[in-house]
Amino acid sequence: MTPLERLHADIDARVDAIRAERPEWLCRQGCQGCCHRLAEIPRLSQAEWRLLA
């Protein structure tokens, strides 16, 4: 597992833990609430683009 894949796995694990404790938490696939409030479009590295592909 690459460091970037490990980071995404850690994020997923943390989100799952928060959801288990707070089912009312809005962050979930399809929500898009946070995305619509971003100040600018996130910049991705080449490694992130490859992972998304």
Strand content: under 5%
Query: What is the rounded Rg?
Result: 13 Å
Output the number of helix runs: 2
Q: Tell me, what's the shape?
A: flat
For the record, the count of structural domains works out to 1
Number of strands: 0
Helical proportion? 40-55%
Mean pLDDT over all positions: 86
Provide the structure class: mainly alpha
**How far is the first residue's CA from the last residue's CA?**
16 Å
Protein name: YkgJ family cysteine cluster protein
Organism: Methylomonas aurea
Write the layout of secondary structure elements.
Blueprint: H1 3-21, H2 46-52
What can you see in these coordinates?
This is YkgJ family cysteine cluster protein. It comes from Methylomonas aurea. There is one protein chain. The chain is mostly helical. The chain has one domain (3-52). It has two helices and no strands. The protein starts with a helix and ends with a helix. 0% of the residues are buried.
Quick summary of this structure?
With 53 residues, this protein is mostly helical. It is 49% helix and 0% strand. This is YkgJ family cysteine cluster protein.
Key structural traits:
flat, 53 residues, 2 helices, mainly alpha, YkgJ family cysteine cluster protein
